[in-house]
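User: Is it possible to get a 3D structure for a protein together with its bound compound? The compound here is zinc ion. I've pasted both below.
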Amino acid sequence: MKKYELTTEAKVNWLGKTLFRVKACVDFTTSSGDEVHAGDLGGFIEQETNLSHDGKCWVWGNAEVWGNAEVWGNAKVCGDAEVWGNAKVCGDAEVWGNAEVCGDAKVWGNAKVCGDAHIFSTKHIFCVTPVGASANSLTVFRNKKREISVSFEWDLYSLDAFRTMASGWEEHLSEVALAILDVALTHIDLSEEVPVLKPCPFCGSESLSVVYEDNLDAYIVGCDSCRASGSVGDTEDAAIKAWNERKEQ
Ligand SMILES: [Zn+2]
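Assistant: Yes, that's possible. Here is the predicted structure of the complex:
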């Protein structure tokens, strides 16, 4: 039986992919206790492979799941989160806020990813249960500033803020939490992303060129297919960055 259907409410995302809002066909309760009723609208997906009809998984709000990405099990994707590429979100995992989960990332188990998370590899996330007096899950991940964020009991912390809080816990709990942070820091890769040109947001072409413009004394990225161009940059990397951020304009 189908859990949901695609509606005709569509939007075209920054990559030019058409996504459709989903509508529940049955009543179910998510693993965190939220009720979804038949007829309720959810978030946006590109195709049915993006969201399993099995389990209690759901996409809410303005969240988007597209490409080869898959959400299954009891996972939840909500807020303005984007899940794409070959990413998998499963188990009881939750992704919300402005989080971006893409590439070959996997978010699973009890992991909770939020804020400006930017996870495109399994080297960008670390999740451990049980932590703290209530034996909850601690998720440590990479954010868009290439810094560490910590998600714990529905709150989002910087590394320092979490460390300060956990230092005040009962000795044994504190020791465990601080040791987990050390392991997470060893695991998580914060190195610079190799600048890869994102496909043209207008025509989807991957045929792009970075050129030096003599008269501007600057670099610029242009689409070889539709001739769209990005903002100028002082360096090739700056021009690539400007192009890749076009979706925010
Ligand atoms: Zn183009």
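The mean pLDDT is 92. The chain has three helices and 22 strands.
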